[in-house]
Amino acid sequence: MAKIYAQKKITVKPMHPKPETVRFLLNYSKALTMKKVGNVQLEIIAN
Known about the structure:
The protein is 38% helix and 26% strand. By secondary structure, it is of the alpha+beta class. A two-stranded antiparallel sheet has the order 1-2.
């Protein structure tokens, strides 16, 4: 069991997304609105 905890940690390479991907995600998050109606939560995209 000691061997499991002594193993090397896996390193993750940093991601470099394209500028258009970042722009798309930011615009999507700006347009997204969450509305709660009773017990239901609605997601509305304002385009």
